[in-house]
Amino acid sequence: MSEAFGFIKGSRPKFFDEGAELRGERVDLLGFSFDSEMSFGMVGRIVEGARSTFVGCHEDFPRAILWFADEMLASILERVAVKSSEGEPIDADSLDFRRLNQLDFMHLVLMTLGKSRFTLGDEDQDVGEYDVTPARFCAAYALRMTYNATLEYMRHSEHLRTYYLMQASTAFGLMQVVEPASEASIYDAVNSSLRSEAARKSAAARYANDPKAKAMDEIYEEWERWQRRESNYRSEADFGRQMHLKHPELVNDRSIAQRAAAWRKERRNTSS
């Protein structure tokens, strides 16, 4: 039986599917086994996270995305003169060139995918169409590099294993950025915490330079408690007198009473 999506494979160099070209093998990127504890569990996190983007897809679909990305990149490089730092032409087909520049290439493919979403399928092999997205490209690349790292780990090749893991972790990080709402709840929680912390530090800096601002913030918080019936004052004038007793050198009771009346009016207008 022919390989699904085989019509995409051409004679051009494999930039992103390097492992398959080197070993001439067909790898199931959604099913290969790995040591989940390798590199302190980082490999397991990358593989499981990347595979989650392909739930319900054909097992050959990640490879099809890599092949298509190879074709896109090769087309781009045909239109760009690739030169060394000394200005000399570089053979873009060479393995060293690909290994040193894959991360420089990724944004070119991501930009192309991001501007034009499309689907891939294979009617001849009875394979339905699946969406090709920037997140899935990053996930497929992360899986390919993680698979390569696993092989080099078994071969005790430290340099290549480190190289592949660096590539995989970078692709995985990009995947999390471009995947819509993948970490929305975590992002909201962290962002809310950061905003609160920034507000706290901003207030602390403001209070350090303006003690009156700190006093008025405390007075407003007490006024809020009064509105919630957590404290008791006979009137706004009484509220002003009590707050003046707490901050006699900073505010006077009449200005506090006027401020309280303004807060009450503002709340009434907002709720109406």
Radius of gyration: 30 Å
Largest sheet strand order: 1-2
Q: Number of domains in the coordinates? A: 2
Q: Termini separation (Å)? A: 71 Å
Q: Class by helix and strand content?
A: mainly alpha
Outline the low-pLDDT stretches: none
**Estimated helix fraction:** 55-70%
Give the SSE string.
Answer: HHHHEEHHHHHH
The amount of beta strand, in percent, is: under 5%
The largest β sheet comes out as: 2 strands, antiparallel
Rounded mean pLDDT is: 78
Shape: elongated
Number of separate helices: 10
Number of strands: 2
Task: Tell me about this structure.
It is a single chain. Helix 3 packs across helix 5 (134-154), helix 5 (134-154) runs antiparallel to helix 6 (158-178) and helix 7 (184-209) crosses helix 8 (211-227). The model has no long low-confidence stretch (mean pLDDT 78). The protein starts with 17 loop residues before the first helix and ends with a helix. It has 272 residues and is mostly helical. The chain contains 10 helices and 2 strands, in the order H-H-H-H-E-E-H-H-H-H-H-H. Strands 1-2 form a two-stranded antiparallel sheet. The chain has 2 domains: 6-182, no CATH class; 201-271, no CATH class. Helix content is 62%, strand content 4%. The protein has helices at 18-23, 42-51, 61-78, 95-115, 134-154, 158-178, 184-209, 211-227, 236-246, 253-271; strands at residues 118-122, 127-132.
Q: Which helices and strands occur, and which strands form pairs?
A:
Elements lengths: L17 H6 L18 H10 L9 H18 L16 H21 L2 E5 L4 E6 L1 H21 L3 H21 L5 H26 L1 H17 L8 H11 L6 H19 L1
Helix pairs in contact: 2-5, 2-6, 3-4, 3-5, 5-6, 7-8, 9-10
